[in-house]
User: Fold this.
Amino acid sequence: MARAKKSGGGGGAPAWMATFADMMSLLLTFFVLLLSFAEMDIVKFRDAMGSISEALGVTTGGTGMFQNSTSPAIMQTPMPAPSASAPAPSTNEIILDELDNLVIDNGLSKDVEVVESDRGTILRVRGKMFFNPGTADLKYESQQILDKIADLMQRYPTRISIEGHTDNIPISRGKYSSNWELSTARAYAALRFFQENKAMDLKRITIAGFGDTHPLAPNDTPEGRAKNRRVEFVFNDR
Assistant:
């Protein structure tokens, strides 16, 4: 008995092609999404660059996402950093300035000197402005400068030392037996003026007599001896 022939099968693409086609569609969709994301980032980047350019005053030109300009950007001048404030002047420095003005305004530079030292501010007054030779009695014309010194002493509550100095010529006559006594008496005469004529806090004031032991110049000339005969007012806020 004759056998029937086997069928050669139906027509169409193999089964694996359908799977491959699906995979390719998914890949195409994935790349399209990537491309769209990339385009969105570029747009945002361009917008950001445009905002920065406007803020810096850059004129747009050229091509591409980075613009260029031949005009310089107008930049604001930066504010200077605040400097540390200068320290306030000390009381000694203020008194120094006021005493300098006192000497200049009254034409006293020949007989009055203002000195800044480690001890404080020193006002040196030649003895002849205050006293006659060999005496400790204040001259009438000494009151003008003593009044101004008292005004400073009242306005600035510093410590004050009144110090008398002489030359090295020994005292041969008069009421004082030595230069020590004379220099101390002259310092006390200034203190007594403040005590009797001004409302002074005498607790802030000291006096001393140094005789000829602290000369400013050699005592071998009349000029040097005249410079050494003096009364010093030492202002010290320390």
